[in-house]
Design brief:
By secondary structure, the protein is mainly alpha-helical. The protein contains four helices and two strands. It has one domain. A two-stranded antiparallel sheet has the order 1-2.
Length: 123
């Protein structure tokens, strides 16, 4: 939200920032969903008659990637999983940083809600 010289708050900046973060989430989630969907279906050879989902194509692609990178193809899926976890943590950290005021208010409200209750007797 931006407060102009006249003191009026404009929601344009806030909605633009929200839309940008929404597109970042979409740009992160769509490739993740496509890759892991393909990986899971092709790993278990659930191809539904579609050649791209066969285990042979799965093995061929990872063998090709292994040759291009000069590494064993069997270690590529764990490396991709680690990269996906890192990407997810970075996206969540950016989101949390952008929402830090709302998150802090939520934590304060929860803390006050539970701190305001009478303590239970300990015996």
């Amino acid at each position: 939200m931006h407060c102009g010289s006249s003191g009026r708050t404009t929601a344009v900046a806030g909605s633009r920032e929200g839309a940008l973060m929404r597109w970042v989430f979409i740009a992160w989630a769509v490739p993740m969903g496509l890759f892991w969907g393909w990986f899971g279906l092709s790993y278990y050879d659930l191809n539904f008659g579609y050649v791209m989902l066969t285990r042979q194509v799965h093995d061929l692609l990872f063998q090709l990637y292994g040759q291009m990178l000069g590494i064993d193809p069997t270690i590529i899926p764990p490396l991709v999983a680690k990269a996906c976890i890192l990407d997810t943590l970075l996206i969540l950290a950016i989101w949390a940083f952008r929402r830090r005021r709302e998150i802090a208010a939520w934590v304060r409200a929860k803390r006050q809600r539970y701190a305001g209750a009478e303590p239970s007797p300990s015996a």
